[in-house]
């Protein structure tokens, strides 16, 4: 069970294991969880042979980029987990900001947690969870950041840090991510700090007030991006004073 007692999170709470190659850092973390790992474990790989994005999409994972997954065990009560993707996006944004030079194109978050530079995707985040046989809940945060390699993506314009004059290596970027994630998870505080996290997310959000289309599993809906509510749901203004809350979907601008 997750304790509701406040305990500060620090860098020393996390471990890191670096691999040369693996099928998927998310799969590696899940295997560790099933084997009894206590969590707060980062797994990175120089290359993935079976990387994946949302909805089972292939995530091309050649050497030169950052592929990292964080295993969390019972990170919050289930009713507060919905805000975690916002916190993760804030942490990744903070880390990438550290390695971009002054004057770079805008670094923003596209709902819920894609990171864009100049409206082009440079990072994808995949959050997966599983109830373990011993009653614990394993949550894996997979993060892929285009550092020097820019895979083709038919769905979105893409970019990489090198195209924006960043000389950071994947290892240097991960050091910033390691620190930023500890900082933001401490502020998130098992979901109790959602007000602070949503405020930080809104400050770096892309496209609030613009016309967007949201692709759902069964249909597409267009409207004006009215922001997010206090739980992180996308608020879509579909006209006539109607606001539709959306929990998951692919957002396209214009």
TrEMBL record:
It catalyses: biotin + L-lysyl-[protein] + ATP = N(6)-biotinyl-L-lysyl-[protein] + AMP + diphosphate + H(+). One of its GO terms (cellular component) is cytoplasm. It is an enzyme of class 6 (ligase). InterPro entries: aa-tRNA-synth_II/BPL/LPL, Biotin_CoA_COase_ligase, BPL_C, BPL_LPL_catalytic, Transcriptional_repressor_C. It holds the Pfam family BPL_C. It comes from the Bacteria. CDD domains: BPL. Residues 15-189 form the BPL/LPL catalytic domain. Keywords: ATP-binding, Biotin, Ligase, Nucleotide-binding. Its EC number is 6.3.4.15. One of its GO terms (molecular function) is ATP binding. NCBIfam families: birA_ligase (TIGR00121). PANTHER family: BIOTIN PROTEIN LIGASE, BIOTIN--PROTEIN LIGASE. This is biotin--[biotin carboxyl-carrier protein] ligase. It comes from Rhizobium phaseoli.
